[in-house]
Write a structure and sequence with these properties.
The chain is an alpha+beta fold. Helix content is about 20%, strand content about 35%. The strands form eight sheets. An eight-stranded antiparallel β-sheet has the order 20-21-22-23-29-28-27-26. The chain has a five-stranded antiparallel β-sheet with strand order 8-7-6-3-9, with no helix packed on it. Strand 18 and strand 19 form a beta hairpin. It starts with a strand and ends with a strand.
């Protein structure tokens, strides 16, 4: 059993037990050099994986020449003895292989790769049977400190102390994608291999949305490939996406945009009361049975910082003082109890259709289309955004955001 371990210049006394997974919040020590994780003590030919400089490891035991450790994805094996550190300094050791631990063009980032597939399930534990906790975005950057060298190995991509563990398989990671790179790969298989063509055109569509360019080309290729293949994808309404792309391309210049936004006369209706941003009074919110609260969780600390709030389960009004005048603005509103928003004389409530929204206001929108639910933004001068969220094709919520 390991009794004393040198950690840089100091010595710690400890006793370690064999464990199969990191406990939430448990603190590791860190390697000082990159190296290999070996399956057996003294057998340096049977490799489990390779770890980066300053990889977190959990010590289990030691021999004269090696430490028995558990690495971030749960693999247990042996590493050659080296100074172990109490903290990280963002360093890399000589010869760290870039093919496993790419640190960006400047060489200073965390070792990382990029997600290569659409809607990749991120698991709570390193097994396909484990619960999926989210879906990673195509081309999402993930930091890694250990690469398994066996088939279908998992890498850990969650928070540092495993409070919220996340795992994906290494085979789904690779170099950073660009629209041009994916387009080249798509054209190389188009008309030659149906399965690869549909895979590549799916990536092409997603890259176009992520980069917010080449949308019309990518969506036209998507429809062409799926039509020629005689295949339907029930998750994607490509005709709606093409309509949205057409509308986004019509966005007016800055001056015309601001003039059109002002003419929309944004306001809200609840319990037959009209609420206009900057004109909402405390008397109004009290008549609406809204409750005063001192603080709302997760509000950004920006230059614009409300002094206090009134709220119902579905609505938050934020109050501020400007030039001696106190007024309120709708900070958040969800639409499930008769609440409505009026934009350009269009009344929008929980039954308001997403396609109608795009047809009417599409030339003023930007969007995080690939995310689900769909989120649309209308620029509020240079101060912030009006954010509209649609779930299952219907208006779900509104929020205003000011840039921090």
């Amino acid at each position: 059993m390991l009794k004393k371990i040198l950690l840089g210049a100091g010595i710690i006394h400890c006793c370690f037990y064999s464990i199969m997974a990191q406990k939430p919040g448990e603190h590791p020590v860190y390697t000082s050099e990159w190296g290999h994780l070996y399956r057996e003590n003294g057998n340096n030919k049977d490799l489990l994986g390779i770890f980066s400089t300053e990889a977190p490891v959990y010590l289990l035991d030691s021999t004269q020449t090696q430490y028995k450790v558990q690495v971030s994805n749960g693999d247990i094996g042996f590493i050659d003895r080296q100074p172990l550190l109490k903290s990280m300094r963002g360093k890399k050791s000589a010869g760290e292989p870039v093919q496993y631990f790419y640190r960006g063009t400047q060489g200073y980032q965390c070792p990382h790769y990029y997600v290569q597939v659409s809607e990749l399930r991120v698991r709570k534990a390193p097994a396909t049977e484990s619960a999926a906790i989210r879906r990673a975005a195509l081309n999402e950057l993930v930091c890694i400190d250990y690469v398994p060298l066996y088939q279908d190995g998992w890498v850990y991509i969650g928070d540092h102390f495993h409070e919220n563990p996340e795992y994906i398989q290494m085979k789904y990671l690779g170099t950073e994608l660009t629209y041009e790179k994916v387009l080249k790969e798509y054209l190389a298989v188009k008309g030659k291999n149906k399965e690869k063509e549909l895979t590549q055109v799916g990536r092409l569509r997603e890259m176009a949305w992520l980069e917010d360019k080449n949308l019309k080309q990518a969506l036209n290729y998507w429809k062409e490939s799926y039509t020629n293949a005689g295949v339907e994808n029930p998750k994607i309404d490509i005709d709606f996406e093409r309509l949205l792309a057409d509308q986004l391309a019509k966005k007016p210049g800055t001056e015309a945009y601001e003039k059109k936004l002002k003419a929309l006369n944004l306001h809200f209706i609840w319990k037959d009361t009209q609420l206009f941003d900057g004109k909402i009074t405390e008397a109004q919110v009290k008549q609406l049975d809204m409750q005063k609260v001192k603080d709302i969780p997760n509000t950004p600390e920006c230059g614009w910082e409300p002094q206090y709030f009134y709220r119902t389960p579905n609505t938050i009004v934020a109050f501020e003082e400007y030039k001696g005048k106190v007024s309120g603005s709708i900070y958040k509103m969800s639409f499930s109890n008769g609440e409505a928003l009026v934009l350009g004389n269009v009344r929008m409530d929980s039954q308001y259709d997403e396609r109608d929204f795009v047809n009417r206001f599409g030339d003023m929108l930007s969007t995080r289309w690939i995310s689900s639910p769909h989120e649309y933004h209308i620029q509020n001068s240079d101060a912030g955004l009006f954010i509209f969220t649609f779930k299952n094709g219907k208006l779900f919520s509104y929020e205003c955001m000011f840039y921090c």
